[in-house]
Amino acid sequence: MNSTDRLSRRLILKAGAASAALGAPGLLLAQAKPLKIGLLHPVSGALAFSGSQSRLGAMMAIDEINAAGGLKSLGGTKLEALLGDSQSRPEVGVSEVERMHQEGVSAYVGCFASAIALPATQAAAKYNTPFMIDVGVSDAIVSRGLKNVFRLAPGNGKCVDDAFGGLSEVNKAAGGIAKTAVIVHEDSEFGTSTAKMLSGKLAAIGIEIKEVLKHATPTRDFSNLVLRIKSIKPDIVIMSNYQNEYVLMARTLHQQKVDLVGMFSVLGGGFNYKLVKEQPDVAQYMMDFNHWYNPRNPKSLDMRKRIEAKGDLFTFEVYCAYNAVKCYADAVERAKSGEKDRVIASLETSTWADHFMPYGPTKFVNGQNTGGRAVLLQASKTDIDVVWPNEFAAVKPVFPKPKFG
To answer: Reading across the β-sheet that carries 375-379, which strands appear in turn?
Structure first.
């Protein structure tokens, strides 16, 4: 064996030893870097419950995709979650967008609150990074011409329009018993914009607005506000606020025995299984027009069972975030790329229908899924049922609600 042969053999042996120490060389060469997806939610602060629920749904989708072999068109590339906490503050949301950009994020999913989503999406637009809005209903989010922003669920404009269709039908069926209303809303972008839309719609269905009352988030005591409502004596109270304030407001109305034809909300942040489970007497007969799953889709029923088997609650934040991640993953698969430009182009032409929402196939126009729709819900002491529209309704609404004894 000459010196050249001996040198070649030594190099081969060294390379083999290194490969044995690190793993199969073919696998190392083929293994793709994970595609990083930033989950930006308020998991601390005033919105922590809803933010944590959103993160739960998004992580469930990521885990399912990875367990099923990853992104097939990218050779099994896995999704990696980068976790961001906006702390329920818009400025922190922006700083988290910047931090995750530095860490090489390929897309964002968030932000639950409209007031956080507005500046966060603007920050992500600088880098042309796709941003899937899971919850965040202000139509200002998708009306600014930002090409990177996509929202699967309906915004407050469509929700308010559809809510009044449902409320009008329910009220007509009861002989038009509800003639007056008080609107109560939280004072950030979500509540203010929703209340403005509500104010412009009630007269068209024969209901007079007696007063519009706003409050801060957080608010710890609604006693004086409820006393004001009691003195006005409206037929219905319509609320738009977040989890804690929604529940506290409803509980105070119940404790003070304010007799109403109905308690109605549009995108009520606290209308969920947590309210029914913890305060069934307060929840009973309340109605809300909100994001919901299709109760006739086996996938949604299966997911609800899995969530509840772990002791968690199947709230709208969970499945809105879950489906937002799945929609993004579908766009990556069709684009056969995680590159931002190609994924955005893929989302723009999406016809994704493998969801369990009461939607048809996805069709984004200026970032808004035009097929998204919410439904009218009513709570009993043990559950929440769809009561309108009829194709998804499980039961008929109880309206007017019984008076206090």
So the answer is: 208-215, 180-186, 236-240, 262-266, 287-290, 375-379, 384-388
Q: What is the span of the domain harbouring residue 55?
A: 35-153+297-371
**Does a structural domain hold residue 11?**
no
CATH number at 41 reads 3.40.50.2300
Q: Look up the pTM and report it.
A: 0.88
Element at 269 (helix H, strand E): none
The Cα 224–Cα 210 span in angstroms is 17
Q: How far apart are CA 80 and CA 364, in angstroms?
A: 25
The alpha carbon dihedral of 238, 289, 187, 208 has a sign of negative
CB atoms under 10 Å from CB of 103, counted, come to 11
d(CA 241, CA 249): 9
Residue 383 to residues 155, 189, 244, 379, Cα–Cα distance (Å): 25, 30, 20, 6
> Which pLDDT tens digits describe the chain residue by residue (405 residues)?
554 455 445 544 444 444 444 344 444 445 679 999 999 999 999 999 999 999 999 999 999 999 999 999 999 999 999 999 999 999 999 999 999 999 999 999 999 999 999 999 999 999 999 999 999 999 999 999 999 999 999 999 999 999 999 999 999 999 999 999 999 999 999 999 999 999 999 999 999 999 999 999 999 999 999 999 999 999 999 999 999 999 999 999 999 999 999 999 999 999 999 999 999 999 999 999 999 999 889 999 999 999 999 999 999 999 999 999 999 999 999 999 999 999 999 999 999 999 999 999 999 999 999 999 999 999 999 999 999 998 899 899 999 999 997
User: Are residues 165 and 93 part of one domain?
Assistant: no
Rounded to the nearest angstrom, the gap between the alpha carbon of residue 296 and the centroid of all alpha carbons in its chain is: 20
| CB-CB neighbours of 299 under 10 Å | 13
DSSP 76: S
Verify that 169 and 270 share a domain, yes or no: yes
